[in-house]
Amino acid sequence: MTKRVAILISGGGSNMVALAQSMCGDHPARPVLVMSNDPQAGGLAKARAMNIPTLAIDHKPYGKDRAAFEAALQRALETAKPDIICLAGFMRILTPEFTAKWEGRMLNIHPSLLPKYKGLHTHARALEAGDSEHGCSVHEVTAALDDGPILGQARIAVHAGDTPETLATRLLPLEHALYVAVLRRFAAGDRTPVNLDG
């Protein structure tokens, strides 16, 4: 049975586009919703251009009431009935109560070689640490930030003279390739980790 996938974004949605474009032909999943916490997110227009239903639930009116914001997210997801949720640059920290509802069914991509550099500013932190390699990880989402089982990683070498911007630019195509590969396996019931080298 084809799996239904909802993709949550906050910005331009480049990972969302890669995922959505991959879900065709014999792929075991199909996109059924692209949702954002920012009504102006550029990825929403891209999703509409691909004929994927979209929805924006602006987090700002909810202030610090994360439970109310997540209740609105949950209602929208229950309507779309996804089997899998892919966080693709969704810049809101989700509560344990919300993640528990989707345990084992929610994926995230993070721009570091987890367990290194959970949270923000990962490229700068890798450079500050003098790392010889950097990368990205796809993992299952759990209550702890950037902490669930790792389903895939992609690695690039850190070059002399690299900046956070050059690392991010070089890493992005690998993020796309990794997330696409992991989702295909995950939707087919395969949690064997994927490893890519750039």
From TrEMBL:
Q: Which InterPro entries match?
A: Formyl_transf_N (IPR002376), Formyl_transf_N_sf (IPR036477), GART (IPR004607), GART_AS (IPR001555)
Q: What Gene Ontology terms describe where this protein resides (cellular component)?
A: cytosol
| Record-linked CDD domains | FMT_core_GART
Positions annotated to bind N(1)-(5-phospho-beta-D-ribosyl)glycinamide: G13, S14, N15
Catalytic residues as annotated in Swiss-Prot or TrEMBL? H110
- Per the record, the domain of life is Bacteria
A GO molecular-function term, please?
phosphoribosylglycinamide formyltransferase activity
Q: What is its EC number?
A: 2.1.2.2
Pathway this chain belongs to:
Purine metabolism; IMP biosynthesis via de novo pathway; N(2)-formyl-N(1)-(5-phospho-D-ribosyl)glycinamide from N(1)-(5-phospho-D-ribosyl)glycinamide (10-formyl THF route): step 1/1
Locate the Formyl transferase N-terminal domain: which residues?
Answer: 3-183
Which residues are listed for (6R)-10-formyltetrahydrofolate binding in this entry? R66, M91, R92, I93, L94, N108
KW rRNA-binding (keyword) present: no
> Would I find Phosphoprotein among this entry's keywords?
no
Could you list this entry's UniProt keywords, alphabetically sorted.
Purine biosynthesis, Transferase
Q: Name one GO biological process term.
A: 'de novo' IMP biosynthetic process
State the PANTHER family in the record. Answer: PHOSPHORIBOSYLGLYCINAMIDE FORMYLTRANSFERASE
What is this protein's function per UniProt?
Catalyzes the transfer of a formyl group from 10-formyltetrahydrofolate to 5-phospho-ribosyl-glycinamide (GAR), producing 5-phospho-ribosyl-N-formylglycinamide (FGAR) and tetrahydrofolate.
Record family assignment: Belongs to the GART family.
- Output the NCBIfam families linked to this UniProt entry: PurN
What is this protein called in UniProt? Phosphoribosylglycinamide formyltransferase
The organism named in the record is: Yoonia rosea
